[in-house]
Q: What sequence folds into this?
């Protein structure tokens, strides 16, 4: 997947701007606050129709103007698309090849992107809830049916919790709800397990290349259930039977995939406790590169990789390793305040986009 051109109008700090990109590595160079992240955000918007920085679309409209327009030419699934998005007080409008899209699902996902921003360190430092969200979002991108079963599960969990709070509880009805909840979970557990195990293999490879062969990272799926049980369905039903009184007493479901987590470790020790800043960044980066491979395996094309501020905490060797690893099969955008520390070979191969203060150049 490639984006070849981007035109911005009244988007963040860009009154009007036009960019052409290389199908390989694009290095976006500029001082702080000049609009590097804004450019990455615009590309992301063309894929997901949402920002990774804000939920409020009008925040992206340039101050004192009434709308923002983002247009991009992209190649995906052996076809060419002209994507257009307009943001204003009235909401957002999306066009594909000049045709207005009424459903956002017709626009979202024409191009796939994987984005890395410093906020992604939540994968290591954040709460289990954030890591579960990561799994759910990535799995939903890989398969519609995951999202379907996940919604079914969420609905059943809500219903069961509500029922547990009711005055009189019919054990037969509670069993029916529990049994349905278990069936949905068996599907989701299998998907999460397989996703994390593939992620683990790919992330380990990427980490060894960026960081060092001597360090090794792992990501493992953490479930409250005993996943080694020979009959998993029976084992889950047994867990719920065992917890029944406690669930009724507290009016909530104590066990389930809504308590899952990911354990991220470096040399077998929990990364959030023992890994340095640079190591944590390298781990998250390795996870993102692993995602590229998982998406490729699923849809047969590499997504576009957006790396914002990834270089600032990597030492020169890691920077060079990272940029070497990004081959020409993956179109990459990488922001930096300076080209220092990047090897000459990398710089000469990459396409450089210099961003200066818009206010000065206007
Ligand atoms: N809606 C908006 N209208 C006009 N300018 C905006 C808007 N939103 C943000 N900006 C401006 O955009 C600039 C920030 O751009 P951006 O975040 O892309 O910087 P950056 O180049 O990534 O900087 P850094 O190196 O610090 O990450 C700021 O000067 C900010 O005031
Ligand atoms: Mg930035």
A:
């Amino acid at each position: 997947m490639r984006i070849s051109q981007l035109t911005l109008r009244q988007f963040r700090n860009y009154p009007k701007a036009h960019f052409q990109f290389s199908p390989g590595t694009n290095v976006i160079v500029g001082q702080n606050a000049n609009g590097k992240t804004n450019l990455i955000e615009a590309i992301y918007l063309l894929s997901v129709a949402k920002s990774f920085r804000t939920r409020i679309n009008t925040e992206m409209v340039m101050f004192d103007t009434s709308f923002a327009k983002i247009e991009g030419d992209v190649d995906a699934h052996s076809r060419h698309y002209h994507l257009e998005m307009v943001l204003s007080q009235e909401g957002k409008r999306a066009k594909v090849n000049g045709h207005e899209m009424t459903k956002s699902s017709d626009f979202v996902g024409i191009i796939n992107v994987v984005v890395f921003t410093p906020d992604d360190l939540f994968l290591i430092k954040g709460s289990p809830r954030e890591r579960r969200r990561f799994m759910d979002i990535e799995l939903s991108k890989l398969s519609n049916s995951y999202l379907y079963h996940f919604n079914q599960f969420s609905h059943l969990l809500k219903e069961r919790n509500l029922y547990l709070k009711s005055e009189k509880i019919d054990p037969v009805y509670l069993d029916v709800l529990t049994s349905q909840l278990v069936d949905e979970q068996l599907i989701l557990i299998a998907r999460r397990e397989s996703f994390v195990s593939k992620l683990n293999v790919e992330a380990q490879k990427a980490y060894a290349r960026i960081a060092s062969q001597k360090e090794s990272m792992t990501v493992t799926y953490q479930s409250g259930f005993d996943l080694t049980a020979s009959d998993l369905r029976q084992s889950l039903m047994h867990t719920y039977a065992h917890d029944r009184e406690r669930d009724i007493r507290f009016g909530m479901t104590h066990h389930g995939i809504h308590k899952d987590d990911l354990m991220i470790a470096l040399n077998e020790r929990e990364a959030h406790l023992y890994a340095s800043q640079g190591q944590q960044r390298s781990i998250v980066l390795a996870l993102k590169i692993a995602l590229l491979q998982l998406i490729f395996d699923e849809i047969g094309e590499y997504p576009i990789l957006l790396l914002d501020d990834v270089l600032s905490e990597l030492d020169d060797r890691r920077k060079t390793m990272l940029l070497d690893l990004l081959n020409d099969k993956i179109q990459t955008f990488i922001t930096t305040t300076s080209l220092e520390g990047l090897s000459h070979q990398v710089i000469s191969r990459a396409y450089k986009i210099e961003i200066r203060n818009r206010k000065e150049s206007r």
User: Anything to note?
Assistant: The chain has a mean pLDDT of 93.
